[in-house]
Amino acid sequence: MERLHEVAYARQYVVPFRDDAECMRWLHFPQPPDRRHRLERFCSASGLSSTEGIVDTVIDGQQENIDQVS
Fold it and tell me: Is the pLDDT of residue 1 over 70?
């Protein structure tokens, strides 16, 4: 399960887990990214056999961070 958490954390920035405007403005994407394709490739390259559970794991991690600073 720790591998899933590591991939989920990195996924926030690589896939990215941001809205289209922020991707183009702050991350310098020329157009909105194809998140599904990027997620599938990233998970595959990270040794995961599927993308199942990755988005929920990202959300859970973000909530944990919010809880720690609240």
Answer: no
